[in-house]
Structures are given as C-alpha cells and as structure tokens.
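Dear colleagues,

For the upcoming journal club I promised to circulate an example of a predicted protein-ligand complex. I picked one with PMT because it came up in last month's discussion. The inputs are reproduced below in full, followed by the predicted structure.
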Amino acid sequence: MPSVTGVSGRRVVVGVSGGIAAYKSAELVRRLRQAGAEVRVVMTPSATEFITPLTLQALSGNPVHTHLLDPAAEAAMGHIELARWADAVLVAPASANYIARISHGLADDLLTTLCLATQAPLFVAPAMNRVMWAHPATQQNCSVLQQRGVQLLGPAEGEQACGETGAGRMLEPEALLASLGVYWLHGVLAGCRVLVTAGPTRESIDPVRYITNHSSGKMGYAVAEAAAAAGAEVVLVSGPTELACPEGVTRIAVETAANMAEAVQAQVERCNIFISAAAVADYRPLSVEAKKIKKHSPELSLQLERTEDILAIVASQHDRFTVGFAAETDNLEQYARDKLARKGLDMIAANLVGAGLGFNADDNALTVLWQGGKQYIERADKKTVARQLITLIAERYHAQGTS
Ligand code: PMT
C-alpha cells in the first residue's frame, strides 16, 4: 500500500520535452524521489539542449532514456517495458510541439511512443510563451487530450522566460507533486463515513462576551475536503469560522463545546472514522450572566468548569477509528504520545504552534503518531498537509481492519 503523500511507492516516468522550464524538471525529480516515488526520466532530444541527462540521471538514480532506437537503453529497459512499468507518466515541461504531436497520435520519438504505448494515466504540464498557449491550435490540441482523459496540470500565469507576462508558465514542482497525490488519493476512503470537527468553540460569559481561541478552522476544513476527495461521505461539525463549506461535505454549525459534543454524539454512530481537529475550549464559565456584566470593580473573577472531552468520550464509548490532534508549544512528541494513550486513540496528529504554523496560519507540519508508528508530514499549506494525513489515516484504518 503506498505511503504518506500518496506518491510514495509509485513508479513515475517523468517526460521532459524541450523548453526553458526543463530546468524545473530537476527539482521535480528530486521532490518525487524525496516523496518516495521511483522515477525514470525520458527526454526528447531538444530537452537535452536545456538540461543534461547526467543531471537527471543523478537525481533519479536511474539511466535517462533519450532515444527510441538506442540498443543500450532498450537492453536495460525497452520502451514497451517502460510503458508497462509506469504507474503514471508526467510530462513536464510539455512544449506546444509535444502537445501537438501527442494530440495527433504521432509516435516519432521515445516520449511520444511511450505516451501511446502506456496504459498508465498521463499528466501533462504545459510550458510555453503566452501567445503560443493562447493559439487556437494549442487550445484545440489540449481539448482533444482532455477528452481522451489526459490530465492537464496548469499552466500557471506570471512572468515568462521570454520577458512577457501571462498564462504559459509550468506549474511549480510542489504543485505537480500535489496533483499526483490528489490523483492517488482518489477512492482510498470510498464507502467510508468520516466525521470531522473543526474550528474553535465559543463559551459565553454574558450576552456580549465569550471565551474562545485563535483556531480559524482551516486545518479541519482541509481535512474534511481531503476526506471527501478520497471518496468518503463527510460530515463536518464546525465551530464559528469564516470559511465556506468544502464541496461535497455536509456541515453542522455549532457554537459551544456542549453543542459540538451533542452534534458529534448524534453523528458518530453512523461513521467509521472520527477526526477531531477542533480546538475545543477546555473550560467554560460555570454560569452565564443573563445581563451584560458592568465594570464596577477593578477586578473580576470568573469561575470556570471543564467542558466535556468530546474526543475521549468518542474513543471510550464507540468502536470507531479515532484520530485526535495535539497543539503544543513544546515537548511535542511526548505530550502527543501521552494524549494518544490517555484518550485511547488510534492516531494523533501533533502540531507545533507558532512561527507561522498551526492556529490561524496557512501552513502546518505534523508529527503523526500511532501505537508502534510515527510519520512526519513536512511543512506545507494545510490542504497539502491534509491530503497526506488522509492518505495515512486511510492506510492505518484499512490495515487495522485487515489485521
Ligand atoms: O483551525 P486552524 O487555525 O487551522 O488551526 C488548526 C489547529 C491548530 C487548531 C489544529 O491543527 C489542532 O491542533 N487542533 C487541536 C487543538 C487542541 O486544542 O488540541 P488539545 O491538545 O487541546 O486537544 C487534544 C484533542 O482533544 C484535540 O483533538 C481536540 O479536538 C480534542 N478535544 C479537546 C478538548 C475537548 N474538550 N474536547 C476535545 O475533543
């Protein structure tokens, strides 16, 4: 079973056609290998004018294939074998010329031949001057490819090597990697029902004041979105946030920890997996004042009581695959392991908060722990992190079911 990014353990042929963006292929190959993929590179002759096969050989750890009729390369792994070997073919950069040839079914070099001979999914990352991209011939060729099920990745807009600005830049390697990850995420939770909590809770002090925290809900919403992309039926119990509900997800809006506990209890019975990403208030005022508290005295004490620990209740009362989050400022792994054991969880995703990570940040990084296992998910935007987390949850959930 492939591992954490969805890319790990996959066999990827990276096709490089001739264009200035070929220099980014080196980083793409490096990132794919770092993510655990096996990589073989096929270059068109003109691509070798922009970047040397030696560079891509060193980064991929495999000989680079450049010619269709090269006896040495064919002896090592023939083009048909290569076409069969691939779990995916990613052509990046894809020049206007390559796109035109492949859309017409030409097979006049190794790369186009391989693209015709493979049954693996084909991903194409166009890179060219903006006028060439906008040309009706290119647009028509791309439509033909899409109708055949080829996945076009990009292009992005921005400054181009030719000095112009517009659409035609190759997507960055990280975005290409994430797109492959999403492709392989598809279906890993098909038939599962996933319940996710997200955001903060608000605990009223009086009619105008409340206790809350800095959670934006971004992490939990990204997790819900990734679970839906993985084929699950997803219910999201959300504290107050500004975020739009992810497509295909059912949202139940709540305010307090008590509301959240009630909504979770009502939903959890019909779910297979519970993921608790919410920053639930640990304490609430013992009583809520009916009228606005007046500032008559220089000091004011509030008496607080513990809220219900929703996650611990689910873990102890229901036989669900239960995933907690731990937000810590120090001793990350030790505190998270304590919570994993104390709350009886199947898995915990620990995040260090601060320095642009965690609460109300766009990025996160997770140390994911389970009994006898650990996986680090490196810093990235929360959607990317969430997809990796969901892949890992799916692996552990299925492994538990079959153990
Ligand atoms: O929302 P964002 O701005 O994107 O930020 C994301 C996040 C930092 C809030 C998120 O990644 C995260 O770490 N959520 C859990 C934060 C937290 O409060 O952790 P905790 O250590 O207090 O709680 C541990 C676990 O118990 C959590 O899964 C929590 O949801 C759950 N819990 C806690 C208290 C409580 N009364 N009931 C609970 O279910």
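Two points we might discuss: The longest strand covers residues 373-381. Residues 59 and 171 are 20 Å apart (CA to CA).

See you all on Thursday,
B. R.
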